[in-house]
Specification:
The structure holds 2 protein chains of 2 kinds. By secondary structure, chain A is an alpha/beta fold. Chain A is built from 8 helices and 10 strands. A 6-stranded mixed beta sheet of chain A has the order 6-7-8-3-9-10, sandwiched between helices. A 4-stranded antiparallel beta sheet of chain A has the order 2-1-4-5, covered by helices on one side. In chain A, a hairpin with a 2-residue loop joins β4 (about 75-80) and β5. In chain A, α3 (about 115-125) crosses α4 (about 130-145), α5 packs parallel to α6 and α6 (about 190-205) runs antiparallel to α8 (about 250-260). Chain B has a 4-stranded antiparallel beta sheet. In chain B, α2 (about 20-55) packs antiparallel against α7 (about 160-200) and α9 (about 215-255) runs antiparallel to α11 (about 270-295). Classes of the chains: A alpha/beta, B alpha+beta.
Chain lengths: ~270, ~300
């Protein structure tokens, strides 16, 4: 796949497999009614199982990409394809069904305040018509995976920020969607908790889920050493994989590596 | 199909966000109370106005020397006139009895019966009374200028009174109708506004539900059920208050005071049904419609 290298130590992404990419942006632009440019001719694609960071300062277009992907916004130009389907062909009535295939995690957690942890995650299953037995099977499982077994019957306002974000991730993942989007998932969290959250996302990625994380936590991005898409003022200015992946780390090794003080290479 | 699930959802959100739901319930309660008091009053007013109009009539006084044959002839002539619904004959003896009862002392002084035979002519519609009057007295546009029959002494000329009665009752009826419409409008707006406010307070919830992939109807139905519950509960409470007031205050009075008993107002059970239906419908529909604005994510 073609790539636009901008840094002097950029390496091209590995050659694309024959399977269609999970996500494809082709010349996508978004101009807001106020005149602000959200995105300008963005082109990239993401393959199944990738873990991609979307970085850039505020207003660079990261949130725009996320909102375009969940069809909260419509692009002003270009095509977006998710799992081979053109998003513009999805009619308004079918948007809800489309969104059930994408897990989304936000900076402000976006939990339903009048429901317990269990019910928050169950809601994602109820929406898809899950039976009570299904819910009784799947929800405790996913809450165990995210480390919340003891908090099943707590309400969001009784949880810490990190715990709330875990609930959010559990809800996003309970239907095992092929794509998981995270818009500044660690924005409201302290560094220690951030590591835990990123560890969880890494674990989810290892199950084969494609993960796209928008963040401006540079240290995290450097440490994790995954593919990075950098946006600046709506344009993609960097698309590189560092190639220093330690692909088969366990999550524990991953976490240990993340907690080491970051070492930035010289010259950067 | 999943009604049980939606019912539980509605109960849950009412329990945890009690204040906005309670505000909506109180609003429905108050407006239904006001309507429940106002509708019977309006009806009583209209009823009174109508009965006053119904008593509007033309009195035809026969000459004192009129015979039974003259009476019969005049009666058939009167019945043949347009817009005449009925004619009531009061003989001079009957008239004497009626007036003597009303004022015994005065009539005891009288020697003979000075009263004439009288015909009370009732028009089919109160607004036609003046037309009937001019027919009989011949003062109409096609009339001869003379009374239609020589045996008639004169026709009561209560024109000014009659006109006033018609004008006033018309005004009363129209005012009552306008007030009712305004009140109903105010009630609907008030209930809808309270519901919209309570939904506004929960717009984040709706946003989250949409992001997780819930369809519009999946989100809407619990809110509408909540609207039904709140609306019917408010209306039932209002009905309970009205029923208690009626039993405690009005029924004892009705035996003493015929004004309340007399006009035919809407039956209490009909009023109950109307209030219940109105409260529930406005709440449910109001919830569904107000939610549209928040479903546009």
């Amino acid at each position: 796949m073609p790539v636009t290298p901008a840094g002097h130590d950029a390496r091209p992404v590995a050659a694309a497999p024959a399977v269609a990419p999970v996500l494809e942006f082709r010349g996508v632009s978004k101009r807001y009614p106020s005149g602000d440019v959200g995105l300008e001719q963005a082109t990239f694609s993401i393959d199944r199982g990738d873990f991609v960071f979307l970085v850039g300062s505020t207003g660079s277009g990261k949130s725009t990409v996320m909102r375009l992907l969940i069809k909260e916004l419509e692009p002003s130009g270009g095509t977006i394809r998710v799992a081979g389907h053109d998003l513009s062909e999805i009619r308004h009535k079918r948007i809800a069904y489309y969104r059930r295939n994408i897990g989304v995690v936000f900076q402000d957690f976006k939990l339903l305040p009048t429901r317990t942890v269990y019910d928050n995650v169950a809601y994602a299953l109820q929406v898809t018509g899950g039976t009570r037995r299904e819910i009784r099977d799947k929800v405790p499982d996913i809450l165990r995976l995210t480390g919340l077994s003891t908090k099943l019957h707590n309400y969001p306002d009784q949880l810490s920020g990190g715990e709330q974000q875990r609930v959010s991730i559990a809800r996003a993942f309970v239907n095992h969607p092929p794509l998981l989007l995270a818009d500044e998932p660690t924005g409201n969290l302290d560094p220690e908790t951030s590591v835990d959250i990123m560890r969880l996302l890494y674990r989810i990625n290892r199950t084969g889920t494609t993960v796209l994380v928008a963040t401006h936590d540079q240290a995290m991005v450097d440490k994790m050493r995954r593919r990075v898409l950098e946006l600046s003022q709506g344009r993609i200015v960097r698309d590189e994989a560092t190639g220093l992946y330690a692909r088969d780390e366990t999550t524990r090794e991953f976490a240990r590596r993340m907690r080491q003080p970051s070492t930035r290479p010289d010259g950067l | 199909m999943k009604l049980g699930f939606f019912m539980k959802e509605a109960m849950r959100s009412m329990r945890r966000s009690a204040a906005p739901s309670f505000a909506a319930l109180a609003t429905v309660l108050v407006t239904m109370l006001v309507l429940g008091v106002f509708i019977p009053i309006v009806q009583a007013t209209n009823g009174a106005a109508n009965s006053v109009r119904g008593r509007v009539e033309v009195d035809v006084y026969m000459k004192t020397n009129a015979t039974a044959a003259d009476d019969a002839r005049v009666q058939s002539e009167l019945l043949r006139l347009p817009h005449v619904k009925s004619v009531q004959f009061v003989s001079k003896e009957q008239a004497y009895q009626q007036q003597a009862q009303a004022d015994p002392q005065a009539y005891a002084l009288l020697g003979s019966n000075p009263l004439p035979d009288t015909y009370h002519v009732y028009p089919d519609n109160p607004s036609n009374v003046l037309a009937v009057h001019s027919e009989i007295s011949g003062t109409g546009s096609g009339g001869s200028g003379q009374l239609i029959d020589g045996s008639i002494q004169n026709v009561s000329n209560k024109q000014t009174d009659t006109k006033k009665i018609l004008e006033v009752t018309n005004l009363v009826t129209i005012t009552a109708a306008v007030l009712t419409v305004l009140l109903a409008l105010a009630s609907i707006l008030l209930i809808a506004n309270t519901i919209r406010l309570s939904l506004y307070a929960r717009r984040r919830e709706v946003e989250v539900m949409k992001l997780v992939g819930a369809t519009d109807w999946f989100i809407r139905i619990p809110f509408m059920i909540e609207g039904v519950i709140v609306g019917s509960a408010g209306a039932l409470l209002a009905i309970a208050v009205l029923a208690a007031t009626k039993i405690a205050l009005l029924d004892p009075l009705a035996s003493n005071w015929t004004l309340i008993a007399a006009p035919r107002t809407i039956g209490f059970s009909v009023l109950v049904v109307v209030l219940l239906a109105a409260g529930t419908l406005v709440s449910a529909v109001g919830s569904g419609l107000s939610l549209r604005r928040f479903l546009r994510v």
